[in-house]
Write a structure and sequence with these properties.
mainly beta; Immunoglobulin-like; 7-stranded mixed β-sheet; 4-stranded antiparallel β-sheet; about 10% helix; globular
Length: about 170
């Protein structure tokens, strides 16, 4: 297969993923062990999704979501992430240096989403904007409102790279 065909195949796969199913919507990573790391999942399909058994891989590590958690269509679920002993929903290490996450169904054979997040400046997270969308942006926590954490999109710190023919 030609080298140019692989990016086209991946682009087509991302577009299919965005049309339905379960997506990684946002990543909150922190190298400070005292702070909470999390992965937000978005149900982009027409029906509810039971998260128990789904798998999330980061690098060479893979974790299985053990608890029962039903996510309705168009809604999000926030999973805490940490290492053994922290009682997280998902036992993984999320670095602020950036990573690629892979979400698979409970059988581990059907890829639901491939999500890359860049290096995260202090106090930011990376996620889809809008929920379930194809574009990513940085978010900053701005406080609490009605018991819910409020965030605002702050955009990428640098302009997107451009491709030129030379």
């Amino acid at each position: 297969m030609r080298a140019w065909a692989i990016p086209l195949l991946l682009l087509g796969t991302r577009q299919l993923l965005a049309q339905g199913g379960l997506l990684i919507n946002e990543v909150i990573a922190d190298d400070d062990a005292a702070r909470v790391c999390a992965i937000e999942l978005f149900s982009a399909g027409p029906g509810a999704v039971q998260l128990q058994g789904y798998r999330i891989a980061a690098g060479t590590r893979q974790a299985v979501i053990q608890r029962e958690l039903l996510v309705q269509a168009g809604e999000v679920a926030l999973l805490t992430v940490g290492t053994a002993g922290d009682l997280p929903d998902v036992e993984l290490d999320l670095s602020t240096k950036g990573a690629t996450l892979l979400l698979t169904d409970p059988s581990g054979t059907i890829i639901q989403d491939v999500f890359h997040y860049p290096e995260l400046p202090v106090g930011t997270s990376w996620g889809r904007s809008p929920d379930g969308g194809l574009k990513g942006t940085y978010f900053r926590r701005v406080g609490m409102e009605g018991g819910e954490e409020r965030v605002e999109a702050v955009g990428p710190p640098h302009p997107a790279p451009t491709i030129s023919r030379t």
